[in-house]
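In the laboratory, one determines a bound structure by crystallizing the protein with its ligand and collecting diffraction data. In a computational setting the workflow is compressed into a single prediction: the sequence and the ligand go in, and a structural description comes out. We illustrate the idea with acetyl coenzyme *A.
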Amino acid sequence: MKRAAIKGVMGYLPEDKLTNTDLEKLVDTTDEWIKTRTGISERRILKKEGWASSDMGAEAVKGLLKKTNTSPDEIDLLICATVTADMVFPDNANTICNKSGINNAFGFDINAACSGFLYSLTTGAKFIESGMCNKVIVVGTDMMSSIIDYTDRTTCVLFGDGAGAILLEASTDDTGIINSQFGGDGAGSAFLHMKAGGSKKPATVETVMNREHFVYQEGRSVFKYAVKGMANSINTVMKRSGLNAEDINWVVPHQANLRIINSVASSAGVPLEQVMINIHKYGNTTSGTLPLCLWDYESQLKKGDNLILTAFGGGFTWGATHIKWSYDGSDFSS
Ligand code: ACO
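The predicted complex, in structure-token form:
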């Protein structure tokens, strides 16, 4: 069977930082509470005039094309994972293509909240496996600062802005995207959603006054489902691939909370040194977390490494993917 392989990864982060000390001035919180309960020290916030999530995505994509020496015309498909597209419609994917000089591709968005990148990665891989596409870009980009209420201490400390992109091509050996397991539970929407701005409750003066255009989360409940969902998916994927804990080189978890990451790593039986963690620097960038982890750790990755990616997000959505890494990260100077 044809397999899809990741051939390169690139990230984009806005320059402006929002530190815990900055947040202490906005809401009733402390650096100590945030660090202990979430593991986050700072996050990036997109402040560039006129820029939105597609601009961060386009920066990551342009960097990826350059780094992998790929002409924009070679790209057949671009999938964008996001919950903060520039507009409700059209999609971000085609906007990103337009901003990146990609003219021969089709594109669409996937909204699976914090699992969006993982779902998009597998979707992109299927287009390669089927032979329909030769080169696919998957980009995760979210400007969470556009939907966060900076008067709500229970959510504003968690999220940041950022984007990451990967290039998929057919594998020429036994490396690539091996298998994925995903789960969903619509009952979870009660715990994590945005109340207004969709067809159920279109924007009105009242919805704005009631601050209903921001992320609403019942954190404690989400925490429990997240730990369970990711642990179960990792378990299934490891079984399907015949992997034991000692066969895994890296766990790449969605970066929502360091305590969730620790517990997912321990249920997989993988030591923390082999777990990609950058939540302290960026917070939860939603669709950006997984590609930004791969980008940060790329130089340490070796061809043949077994990676388990896992995510959990609004919906609820969750899953895990086993990747046999396809190149020595040290070959790229990103
Ligand atoms: N500073 C100080 N105190 C705070 C803050 C804050 N920023 N936020 C909440 N508190 C208080 C609460 O009010 C509460 O006080 P009380 O006991 O007097 O009522 C206390 O701290 C404990 O609150 P909890 O909600 O129980 O705190 P918890 O330890 O669960 O941490 C958190 C909250 C960080 C949100 C955690 O539950 C979490 O990470 N949840 C999962 C997030 C997640 O995975 N989301 C999915 C992806 S996101 C997406 O898909 C868009």
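The CA atoms of residues 299 and 331 lie 8 Å apart. Keep in mind that any predicted model is a hypothesis to be tested, not a measurement.
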